[in-house]
């Protein structure tokens, strides 16, 4: 393990409190990236978006599945932000980084313009900040409804730009988030959630009236309601 990896993983352990399994996954991801840089003769202090895209394309070509690619993106995003904070790079190559074309497909049959309209629909209502954050998360992450309503405050890392999701068998997976979605989540977290959080024992991120956790049924009611207003099927 090189010195940069040691310092980065120590930072994640001490400052972010990530689990041993997540740390092991990060270490594995970074080792693959270092191997790619070594083979291409690229110094890590000079990495670009093209280098990152080439590395991810290679992982995909070698059979890595979507969840693995997503975790690699999260690992690289965290590393780049750490390097920027340490003064090792002057610009973050992962800033505004988009998944390579052809990789990502929106759920369902909505066109891109329809998804944008749906996400922008919540405006002015009491729960509009929450609903916008919900829709942003739903259409940018690919999370299941049950995973979204089960999110806890501690599962969202705003600084590093990822969410930790507990899947079947209590297995953790890291889901990277784009900046737009993270902005919506943070706005809801700082401006609306404190007013809803009346039950201090409830740690769910998305709350309903009286501070109760948002239910799966209510989530689908919201989606159906906004879709109907836009005449989306």
Structure description:
This protein is mainly alpha-helical and 233 residues long. The chain has 2 domains: 3-85, DNA polymerase, domain 1 (Orthogonal Bundle), CATH 1.10.150.130; 112-229, Intergrase catalytic core (hpI Integrase, Chain A, Orthogonal Bundle), CATH 1.10.443.10. A 3-stranded antiparallel beta sheet has the order 1-2-3. It has helices at 3-16, 20-40, 49-61, 66-85, 112-120, 128-141, 145-149, 179-191, 193-196, 216-229; strands spanning 156-157, 162-166, 172-176. The protein is built from 10 helices and 3 strands; from the N terminus they run H-H-H-H-H-H-H-E-E-E-H-H-H.
Question: Which SSEs are present, and which pair or pack?
Answer:
Elements: H1 3-16, H2 20-40, H3 49-61, H4 66-85, H5 112-120, H6 128-141, H7 145-149, E1 156-157, E2 162-166, E3 172-176, H8 179-191, H9 193-196, H10 216-229
Could you give a quick summary of the protein structure above?
The protein is mainly alpha-helical.
> What is the CATH class designation of the largest domain?
Mainly Alpha
* CATH architecture name of the largest domain: Orthogonal Bundle
Q: State Rg.
A: 19 Å
Number of strand segments = 3
Largest sheet: 3 strands, antiparallel
> Spatial order of the strands in the main sheet?
1-2-3
Proportion of beta-strand residues: 5-15%
Secondary-structure element series: HHHHHHHEEEHHH
Q: Rough shape?
A: elongated
The total domain count is: 2
Query: How many separate helices?
Result: 10
Residues in helices, as a percent range: 40-55%
Provide the low-confidence segments as ranges: 105-113
Q: Report the span from N to C terminus.
A: 51 Å
CATH superfamily heading of the largest domain: Intergrase catalytic core
Average pLDDT, all residues: 80
CATH topology of the largest domain: hpI Integrase, Chain A
Secondary structure class reads mainly alpha
């Amino acid at each position: 393990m090189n010195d940069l990896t040691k310092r980065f993983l120590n930072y994640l352990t001490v400052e972010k409190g990530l689990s041993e399994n997540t740390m092991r996954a990060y270490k594995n991801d970074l080792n693959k990236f270092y191997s790619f840089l070594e083979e291409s003769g690229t110094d890590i202090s000079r990495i670009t978006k093209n280098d990152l895209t080439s590395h991810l394309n290679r992982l995909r070509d070698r059979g890595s599945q979507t969840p693995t690619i997503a975790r690699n993106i999260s690992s690289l995003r965290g590393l780049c932000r750490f390097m920027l904070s340490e003064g090792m790079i002057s610009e973050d190559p992962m800033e505004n980084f988009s998944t390579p074309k052809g990789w990502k497909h929106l759920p369902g049959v909505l066109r891109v313009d329809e998804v944008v309209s749906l996400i922008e629909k919540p405006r002015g209502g009491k729960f509009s900040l929450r609903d916008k954050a919900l829709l942003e998360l739903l259409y940018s992450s690919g999370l299941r409804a049950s995973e979204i309503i089960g999110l806890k405050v501690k599962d969202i890392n705003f600084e590093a730009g990822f969410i930790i999701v507990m899947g079947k068998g209590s297995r953790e997976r890291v889901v990277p988030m784009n900046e737009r979605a993270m902005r919506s989540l943070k706005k809801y977290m700082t401006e609306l959630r404190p007013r809803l959080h009346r039950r201090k024992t409830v740690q769910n991120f998305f709350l309903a009236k009286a501070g109760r956790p948002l239910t799966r049924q209510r989530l689908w009611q919201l989606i159906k309601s906004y879709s109907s207003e836009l005449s989306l099927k």
